[in-house]
């Protein structure tokens, strides 16, 4: 077991920022944990997906499923049913990254799904196999959170692991774990829609600084005692636009 965990969440197609954080990754001492949502909204989902898969397969990184990986897989399973909702939530950028610009105007949802399946079979199988959480010492890493009303947090539904918000943020953490999560941007958790710093409350640590919206991306290094380092890069490509 590595002596440190290095956690990154919610890359959302911001490949250059992802690369900056990966440069700080030392596989000899860090257990890398990618807390989901590498895809959608940003311009380079393909590169982010493939780097995430490479890191998992070649260095033992843990890549957790987020709600946007789930969106992507649900679309591939039922393209006509999921197309409109997925398009509104960043799917257009993913289709154009995996295929080519203008693909959504050129092809039907079923055609898009068929082309992605034919070109990215290994990636799709990899995404299907992603776990929902990772435990390390007193820490629990998860995309969205857990159901704090359950006596055992492991009984959280698969949907809540990747989708839960307010009931987890406001619930009392009696799990005995420090829960590290992404999914909900820290400007929202701080309540001012501006502050991109880490959010900490009741042994919960939110690390999604909203990079794809013009905020920041965090790479957080933990040891057994707590946070060793918070590596934060601002997205300077555009203004702060929290557009959901």
Automatic annotation (TrEMBL):
Q: Name one GO cellular component term.
A: cytoplasm
**GO BP terms, alphabetized:** RNA decapping
Domain Calcineurin-like phosphoesterase: where? 5-192
Q: Which Pfam families match?
A: Metallophos
The signal sequence is none
Alphabetized GO MF terms: bis(5'-nucleosyl)-tetraphosphatase (symmetrical) activity; phosphatase activity
Its domain of life reads Bacteria
Q: What is this protein called?
A: Serine/threonine protein phosphatase
Which species does this protein come from? Enterococcus thailandicus
């Amino acid at each position: 077991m590595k002596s440190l965990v290095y956690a990154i969440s919610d890359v959302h197609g911001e490949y250059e920022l992802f690369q900056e954080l990966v440069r700080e990754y030392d596989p000899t001492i860090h257990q890398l944990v990618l807390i989901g949502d590498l895809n959608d909204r940003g311009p380079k989902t393909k590169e982010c997906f493939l780097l995430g898969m490479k890191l998992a397969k070649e260095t033992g990184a843990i890549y957790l499923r987020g709600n946007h990986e789930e969106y992507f897989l649900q679309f591939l399973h039922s393209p006509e049913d999921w197309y409109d909702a997925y398009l509104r939530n960043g799917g257009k950028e993913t289709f154009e990254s995996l295929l080519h610009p203008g693909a959504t105007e050129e092809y039907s949802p079923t055609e898009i799904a068929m082309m992605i399946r034919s070109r990215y079979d290994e990636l799709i199988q990899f995404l299907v196999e992603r776990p929902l959480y990772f435990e390390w010492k007193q820490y629990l890493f998860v995309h969205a959170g857990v159901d704090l009303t359950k006596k055992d947090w492991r009984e959280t539904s698969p949907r809540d692991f990747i989708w839960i918000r307010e009931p987890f943020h406001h619930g009392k953490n009696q799990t005995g774990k420090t829960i590290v999560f992404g999914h909900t941007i820290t400007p929202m958790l701080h309540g001012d829609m501006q502050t991109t710093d880490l959010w900490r409350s009741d042994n919960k640590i939110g690390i999604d600084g909203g990079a794809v919206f013009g905020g920041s991306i965090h790479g957080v290094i933990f040891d057994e005692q707590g946070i060793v380092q918070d590596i934060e890069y601002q997205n300077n490509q555009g203004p702060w636009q929290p557009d959901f």
